[in-house]
Batch of 2 targets.
Target 1
Amino acid sequence: MENKAKVYGMKLPTGFQLIGQVGLKDYQCWLEFFASKKNADKIGQTITKRAYARIGLIGNPSDGFHGKTIAMSIANFWAEVNMAESENLILVPHPLNDPTEFGSLVDLHGISRKEGYLGGLRLLQATCKKFYQYCSERGIALARRNFTLKYDTNIPRQVGLAGSSAIVVATLKCLMQFFNLTDKDMAKEIQPQFVLDVEMQELFITAGLQDRVVQVYEGMVYMDFEKRLIDSRGFGQYSNMDMQHLPSFWLAYVGDPSDSGKIHSNVRERWTSGETDVIAAMKKFADLTDQAKSAFELQDWTRLADLMNQNFDLRRQIYGDKALGMTNLRMVDIAREHGSAVKFPGSGGAVIGLCLEPSKMTQLRQALQVEGFVVCDLIPYTGCVDQCEK
């Protein structure tokens, strides 16, 4: 009886119509339907990402010379990138950093003198270009979606707080979320190298890995850039450090960054040629970093202050006063006159300090401000909570 039973079937006018006699055209049609439906659900979605300014606490500038450093994200300053789906791909110029209209020739002169000619728009474009290249070379298919990309930043420019790399990192975060990429597609360990490649290969910005590592990992990060590690796997050894019981750091930077006094240095050429003093200095920076790591773990702030001073003195010895700039040296002198440890957090234009006698901090702040420097207390950013990201 069961063998003689008639069986009836039907094609439903939905995705189930793929059951039965269908061809490639039907399959492609439904792929396009569901893809467009998925994308339609995302229309109007806005992605906002931040990357924070950083301070080099110890060891810099040895990150560019296979050394070791400790750096920290700070919540005082950040770059923010906003991405929304749109019909065409649009990069929106920043009204201050990428101006195309001025009130007068005087305004053009003043803005160009203070802000320079290299705004953030080039960073967005270079990141997008490099991102597409990265995905294409690795066979990562990207959905056919366009977007509008714009940025804002309150990181002081040209004072060595990693403002450029912050824009690139925030843009990368947006692109990865927009195209549904995860750390499996671009491992966290290699994201800093991607950011560095954007700046060095696309925009010819001379830089090291430190800033990009701490902006990707966030918080306070210990970094070992040993040549063997970099050559063998493309990244160093990076580990987050405990930030629960940090001392109070302060930051001062020049109010007019166009006069920060930074002059080209030949240290890289000397290092490449194997000059003994430079090679030894980079090894010493690495040793100072290991000692500072121990000081953080033991909460030995007197030891840490001494190591910060040693870091600056060694940098001054290798680079020379002319390369460091008289304005930067003046900030250091004022800090030391008031009993504070002090060093450069980056390439120049700013200093960070650790004052172990709080009673002297008011006078130190006033002395710096009288000479036109901007002073603020640093707010560590742990990276645990980002209220901005959606």
Target 2
Amino acid sequence: MMKATLLLGIAVLANSEHAPSWKGAGNFDMDFKGVKFGDKKGLGLTMDLHLMEDKVAQGAVCLDGSPAGFYFSPAADVKDRNNWQIYFEGGGWCYDDMDCYGRSSTGLGSSTHWASTMGVGGIMSDNCAINPDFCNFNRVFLTYCDGNSFTGNRDEPLVVKGKPLYFRGRRIIDAVLESLMPMGLKDAEDVFLTGCSAGGLATYLHTDYVHQWLKTNVPTLDAFKAASISGFFLNHQNILGQPVYEAQMKNIFHVANSTHGVNDACIAAYPADEQWKCNFAQYTYPHIQAPFLALNSGYDSWQTKCIYTSELEPGFPNQTSTGNGDCNALGPWQSCQENPDNCNSTQMVTMNKYITDFKADMQSAGTYNKNGNGAFIHSCHTHCEGTNDHQWMTFKVRGVTIRDAFSKWWHQHSSTSPAAPNNYVPCEYKTGSTGPRDCNPTCLNPGN
């Protein structure tokens, strides 16, 4: 069993009341069963805000230049004083200059209006009945405000309409880790990195970087594991065969100067004109060395809406509005995308292809079957289920809940435990002439 733990996560707030205010905020304020982004008001457990004003000079700032920061709550039990849970926020991406300009005036691009306290559920819950493995840990919520999954590493700001925009995600990660050292991180022994949505993607992109940083700076480090929640966003064409999401993520990779803010081994594997691929989980996943667990829906509700049935904003990548992508834009597919039971049999075959492609992309990587790893891939039409108490405890594959799958993997020895027992695969939706179409009965009651 691990002696002391640092849980580093990148995720989203649950049950918040307010959404980001820029046009397109609906892309990150929809269909997540209570999960909303950019607001810093969450569940009952309380973490206090720490703005890193002392790190501004080293570049740890949000898009608008305001100080980056994190929320912190000390361990609830003395026996867990060296156990840490650091949770990096998610909330999508901005894709071009005007999109990022709009984002810079929201809680996902500025710390100006962050609340003094916040909380998250599921894997971050302090209720030991919900979250028995991590409930009493020191908790850190690393707030997301750089626009590209903590990868930005641009020296000079991008000036849009007279406003400088700063892409400094990698420097924010460094600053948070440095700030946590005197708060007890220097004594951490076991480390667990996790995150959800854009934060889940950041878990793929930064796992090995954070692992190496800790090995270098924390001499007590004993073991390290990482797990991504809803972060395996496919580089997939929309239903019409258009590479919408690829164009968006490729553009922000270059705008944010993310080449040296993602996985170095991935960058080394591609020529310069293809290094943008390392902004995607599927191209980074094969290069991850640390023990890793992937939690994702193969029929993720954000991906079906904002990848599979999306279109580019008018004028992209030189749009004049602050729109954040045109999700669920394909009229004949809108109702089907929102609820599988609304799909006719032909549409359901097409939607099932996304599940098939998801499985193929993930399982083709050697990382999938590497000792110490695992993947809990289900079919529920949800997103960020690891931060939702009900879904965390009730969604099952092979009779095993997400929570129990995490616990089993967490307590296994990383170097010798085979991946196969920790790999769970999704079913495909029923394609008959009538519904219901669900193939996993535990998905039928997703809760709030």
